[in-house]
Amino acid sequence: MSFIAFPGWQPGMIITEARANSAALSGRVVFKATRDTAQSITSTGSANPDVANAVQWESTPVDDLGGWSAATPTRYTCVIPGWYKVDAKIGFNAATTGTARTLGIYVGTTLQPGGHFRTAGTFSNQVHTQDGYLTVLLAAGDYIQIAPGQDTGSALSTSTGGVRPTIEIQFGRPA
User: What pLDDT digit, counting tens, does each position of 119-137 carry?
Assistant: First the structure.
């Protein structure tokens, strides 16, 4: 299936396979990935997310536009410019120390405004999940990463199973 940067139908425009496919992208999940084994997350100041801790995706059941590569497993690279909704979840293994768990959505290495999600409190010895979503404007070649943060004072691993780290990226509309 081929997709193109498609601004929308115009009077007299010929319907081609690429245009029809691209028109159908709006609202469609174009990327989904999970981290199925534990990944060690270093403790950060104030539990802020750190792009150095970006999640390395292992399983990619959906990659309709070909934006992911095992050579750069933390990145989903934009192929078609437009608005994208990034829906991300991180799961942390159980720990009783620390006062916060966080998640950050990055374009490149820049934490996005409104893309920092945080839970503060006293943690019991249970798995904790943090999720968030954000709509971002991407140019071709821009890439999305998500990175967790935590302040236990030592490394804390991501969880596995049903609360494993997950990302879904939905194409919203052309730029």
Answer: 988 887 788 899 999 999 9
